[in-house]
Write a structure and sequence with these properties.
Helices cover about 20% and strands about 45% of the residues. The chain contains one helix and seven strands.
Length: about 110
């Protein structure tokens, strides 16, 4: 994530965000097998990147909430659950861009849920 300063405003600039589109909630994503599998794959890739950057050992458990925006692929904005050696689950937020068909993804960020 790059940050650029504008007078009086701090903006986050994501490299894969399109200049158009609306982010839609996906409340029933788990009932649509294709979307559910894409979301799980993207979440696994996000936690793998997080683990590599932070020398951690989290394992993806489940997607909790999903929002998406179509733009020559999909931006998936989601919250997911992961576990480590601690029995209590930890929640993460991530933005992952996925080219359709999903043969390429780019994790914009993955962070613990504040």
């Amino acid at each position: 994530m790059n940050r650029s300063r504008r007078p009086g405003v701090l903006m986050s600039v994501f490299t894969t965000v399109c200049v158009y589109g609306i982010i839609f909630p996906q409340p029933n994503f788990d009932k649509i097998p294709l979307i559910s599998e894409w979301a799980k794959r993207c979440a696994r890739e996000a936690i793998e990147l997080y683990n590599n950057k932070h020398d951690a050992e989290f394992q993806f458990t489940r997607v909790v909430k999903l929002n998406s925006m179509g733009c020559a692929g999909y931006n998936f904005y989601f919250t997911f659950e992961a576990k480590s050696k601690d029995p209590a689950p930890m929640y993460f937020q991530a933005l992952v861009y996925a080219v359709i068909p999903i043969n390429e993804t780019k994790v914009e960020f993955c962070r613990p849920q504040p």
